[in-house]
Specification:
This protein has 303 residues and is of the alpha/beta class. It has one domain: 3-Layer(aba) Sandwich (Rossmann fold), CATH 3.40.50. The chain contains twelve helices and nine strands.
């Protein structure tokens, strides 16, 4: 029986994944090559059904949807501007936002990872039209799709947020992205989100605190000096290691109220405490056992 690549990857120990990614990340291949072999990937938002479900999940958590005529959904209050952090392999969220009535979409990522295959977006449009949504403006041309769907695609990471005007975003979301923002950039990113969000705007973020190597806490074995070094942070497995309470404190520091709608925890620590580096070794169990959470952020008022 042939073993799937996914199952094979799960069998590889975390330390071997680090070694392999350090080596492979320094080979001169473009992102499309690594995506084809499933070594370096930026999400799975290039499937119409999954992209729609994830978008609706977050928009619903934000209270942004008029659901009076299910399953046909629209943005309440006549639309608004949408920001997605880390769209990854596609700009499907921007197309979906347009179909649901958004006036503009900002797609911000750390690189130009999204497919430029216009046919992929045309397939998404057909999927939405088959569901009952109105719209026929996606015809297979990527650049025309950006214009017709009023999508601005920015690919220089969190620094791009400075290009978005004050008080211009109604709804911001991310799906397993914030943990990848460089630690040194995180507070400035959150400050920028507060700046660009409208007073009645909403952010919804799903954060994955697992190590992205084997679904545990092996990333906490390393000292700050080693983990934040360019040698490690540029090798395709980086997470910022900001823990649950610390991240919430940063949101509050920037002027957000925080509601954690869903918190996922391990029953027991997935790693021996003695194997953790400082300062993680001294954190309480209830902090280390948080493997992920959903949070809804709203501006608390003028700062």
């Amino acid at each position: 029986m042939q073993m799937s690549l996914g199952k094979l990857k799960k069998m590889i120990p975390w330390w071997a994944k680090i070694g392999a990614k350090i080596i492979f990340s320094r080979l001169n291949f473009n992102y499309s090559f690594w995506k084809r072999i499933q070594l370096f990937e930026h999400g799975d938002m290039n499937d119409p059904h999954r992209a729609y479900d994830i978008f609706v999940l977050h928009a619903r958590a934000a209270g942004m949807l008029d659901e009076s005529l299910p399953p046909y959904l629209k943005f309440r209050c006549g639309g608004g501007a949408v920001l997605e952090l880390g769209p990854g392999d596609s700009l499907f969220s921007g197309v979906i936002a347009k179909f649901l009535g958004a006036t503009h979409s900002w797609m911000v990522d750390a690189g130009a990872f999204a497919t430029r295959d216009g046919n992929a977006y045309a397939r998404l449009a057909k999927y939405l039209i088959d569901m009952g949504y109105a719209g026929s403006f996606v015809d297979g041309d990527f650049d025309r799709m950006l214009t017709d769907c009023q999508i601005t695609y920015l690919t220089n990471g969190a620094a791009c947020l400075s290009e978005i005007p004050d008080d211009s975003v109604d709804f911001c979301f991310s799906n397993a992205v914030l943990e990848h923002v460089p630690k040194n950039d995180f507070k400035e990113m959150v400050r920028q989100l507060r700046r660009i969000l409208k007073p009645d705007g909403v952010c919804v973020h799903r954060v994955d605190l697992k190590d992205h190597l084997g679904g545990a806490l092996n990333n906490l074995r390393f000292s700050e000096t080693v983990w934040e070094s360019a040698f490690f942070s540029n090798s395709g497995f980086y997470t910022n290691r900001i823990r649950f309470s610390e991240m919430l404190d940063m949101f509050r520091w920037a002027g957000f109220s925080c509601i954690t709608s869903h918190v996922v925890q391990w029953d027991t620590l997935p790693i021996r405490r003695s194997l953790l580096a400082q300062p993680f070794r001294d954190l309480p169990d209830n902090e280390l056992r948080v493997s992920g959470f959903d949070v809804v952020l709203r501006p608390m008022g003028d700062q």
